[in-house]
Amino acid sequence: MIFETTRDDYACLINGAAPRHFTLADTPVSSPPILEMLAGVAARVWAEFSPASWLIIENNEVVGLCSITRPPKDGVIDIGYGIAPSRRGRGHATRAVGEIVKWARQHEAVTAITAETSTTNPASQRVLQANGFVRTGERLDEEDGPLICWRCQTT
Question: Up-side HSE of residue 86: CA atoms within 13 Å toward CB?
Fold first, then answer.
């Protein structure tokens, strides 16, 4: 299940606390510096579009995050997602991305969703394939290395 994030949610996660009435997985969703970066990305997206990101919740526990990685352009949103290491391999990302695709199909301003995965991350590739994303190409990122580009039409 996904819940739209707030600035307070990010502040809690950065400080190692559970947001709202949720609990935390026994391993963090991400490190404080990465969470701070994601909070900054969300702030930039919120300036033009909402929602900017979602908590991924299973059994009242924060197991991951999914974010729009930049303000939408021409109806296209780009997403990234991550799951706490101790909660990976349980279908959480597949369900969360599926909920976001469903949300996007009901949001008239969104015509497509894009995402990128590492060429060495077949689990993340399966998440996107399971939700109707098609491979559109590859690119080399300075920080992340070789990436596969994906797209899902929502209209």
Answer: 10
Instruction: Measure the CA–CA gap between 149 and 151, rounded to whole angstroms.
Output: 7
What SS3 string covers the chain?
CEEECCHHHHHHHHCCCCCCCCEECCCCCCCHHHHHHHHHHHHHHHCCCCCCEEEEEECCEEEEEEEECCCCECCEEEEEEEECHHHCCCCHHHHHHHHHHHHHHHCCCCCEEEEEEECCCHHHHHHHHHCCCEEEEEEEECCCEEEEEEEEECC
Rounded Cα–Cα distance for residues 114 and 128 (Å): 10
Query: pLDDT confidence of 141, banded at 50, 70, 90?
Result: very high
Say how far apart CA 67 and CA 65 lie, in whole Å: 7
Task: Find tokens 């689990």 and name the residue.
Answer: 123
CATH code reported for the domain at 2-153: 3.40.630.30
Give pLDDT tens digits for 31-80: 999 999 999 999 999 999 999 999 999 999 999 999 999 999 999 999 99
- 77, 110 Cβ separation under 8 angstroms: yes
